[in-house]
Structures are given as C-alpha cells and as structure tokens.
UniProtKB/TrEMBL annotation:
InterPro entries: Calcineurin-like_PHP, Metallo-depent_PP-like. It comes from viral metagenome. The lineage of its organism: unclassified sequences, metagenomes, organismal metagenomes. This is Putative calcineurin-like phosphoesterase. GO terms for molecular function: hydrolase activity. It holds the Pfam family Metallophos.
C-alpha cells in the first residue's frame, strides 16, 4: 500500500477518481469517451483539482475471462490509446491502482501493463491500494502548514454489486483495512453511488463526530449489449464522482457529487 501526499494551497480543492474505463472494450463508445474527457478537461482548467485512477483502465480481455476478446481491440491498441488519452492531463493525475482486468495479464504473464503506463506518463503506480493524504488551504502565517487535512483509502474493489445495497456494503468493509479515513472509494462493480455515516472518534482529550463517505466510483461503459445486460444487472449511471474539500479554518467539510 502506497501513501500519497497532496498539497492544495487554495481554500478548497477537488478530487475526481476515474476507474473502470476498460479501454479497448467496444462498449466504451464515443459517448463514454466524451464524458470522460469532459471530467479531465474540467480538472485541467483548475489548479486545485486532481485525478486518481482506480484501475481497469485497460480491458485486457482473454478467452479465460468474462470479457470477450472478440469484442475488444488488441492489447497494443488499447495501451497506446490509453497513453494518448491521459497524456495531456498527466500532471494532475496523482496516482493509479491496478484493477482485476490488468491483474489478468499479471497472473498469466507476470506483467502488469499499468506499470509501464504510469512510468510513461510520470504517474505514481500504487499497486493494489493507496492512502491519500490531502492538505487544503495553505496558511499564510506558518510555513508548510495547512488549515485542513483529509485522509482517504482507495482500492479497486472486488465481489458483486448486482444490488445497490450490496455494492455499498462492499465499500463499508474497507474500514476493516484502514480505520479513521474521511472517505473510502472503490469501483469494480460499475455503480456510481455514495453513502455517508457519522462516527465517533477520540481526538486529543475529547470525542468528536466525523462524517465518513463510502464511494463507488462508477464506469464509462454502455449497458446495451454488454456483460451487464447479459447478466441482467441494473443500468448504472455513467461517469465519476467529484469530491470537494473545504480548506478554510475550522471548516473540515467534504462533499461528494455524483
């Protein structure tokens, strides 16, 4: 597990987790690509916005997988197009974790294509999971100090998500890995949902309330003709969540938009 530290000096900041792109799958249509590019352009226009890649960037279909290799581009093609897609935005992509689709190639050949992908774009490759430490609101009166610090945990996810409740339950289980985060995020099941829970935590000499967000990070694939339709899964909203962090004094507030 990698720990990624990000400093955003403005009085607020944004994070957009992007995953389950499945570059190479024919169900990633121009509609999905245009939606993704809209998010990326939005980030590029803002110095206080960052992106984190949640895995399954590449489809990596094989005869032994649920993904149909006859409905996918070649591996070289999907890799090259992924590099081309993200290159203009690489400066604001703070990290990348692997997904089960990239792990297929690793299990078969001992090679994960996301490692050279990240190296080529200068993105930190984090393996299976990452902790994000995000400091917001640089203080003018003290060097290298910020008003607010937010902590998050990212994993690609696993298991089914055929119901919204089941999908969200999977995200809450991430608390068993790392405690005390402000947000937990995972994908894999292609749902775009968020749930919140208020918890009590000891802080210095008192007990404080903390709101925790559990985030399912969505997908960009069309439903028609896909494995999701074949399995009679519900149609999920296409896209990614947007996290907004407040960086003002005594304003520890995180809002998630979907």
């Amino acid at each position: 597990m990698q720990v990624i530290a990000i400093d955003i000096p403005e009085d607020h900041g944004y994070l957009i987790p992007v995953g389950d792109l499945h570059r190479g799958d024919r169900h990633l249509t121009q509609r999905g690509l245009d939606k993704l590019k809209g998010y990326l352009e939005w980030v590029k226009e803002r110095a206080n916005a960052i992106v984190f890649l949640m895995g399954d960037v590449l489809n990596v279909a094989s005869r032994d997988s649920k993904s149909n290799p006859f409905e996918s581009q070649s591996g070289d093609d999907e890799y090259a197009k992924s590099v081309q897609l993200f290159k203009p935005y690489a400066r604001q992509i703070v990290g990348c974790i692997t997904g089960n689709h990239e792990q297929r190639m690793y299990r078969q050949f001992g090679f994960n294509p996301l490692q050279p992908f990240c190296n080529e774009l200068g993105i930190q490759y984090c393996g299976f999971s990452a902790v994000l430490k995000i400091r917001i609101g640089k203080r003018a009166d003290r060097a290298n100090e910020y008003e607010q610090t937010y902590w998050g945990f990212a994993h690609h996810g696993n298991g089914g998500g055929s119901t919204l409740g089941g999908a969200l339950n999977r995200k809450t289980k991430l608390q068993e890995v790392v405690h005390g985060m402000d947000f937990y995020m995972a994908g894999h099941d292609h749902n775009l949902i968020v749930g919140t829970r208020n918890i009590l935590l000891p802080k210095r000499d008192k007990i404080v309330h903390q709101r925790v967000h559990f985030i399912d990070t969505g997908s960009f694939l069309d439903w028609d003709g896909s494995y999701a339709e074949e399995a009679a899964f519900h149609i999920s909203k296409q896209g990614a969540p947007r996290l907004r962090f407040d960086g003002r004094k005594r304003q520890h507030d995180l809002h998630v938009s979907i």
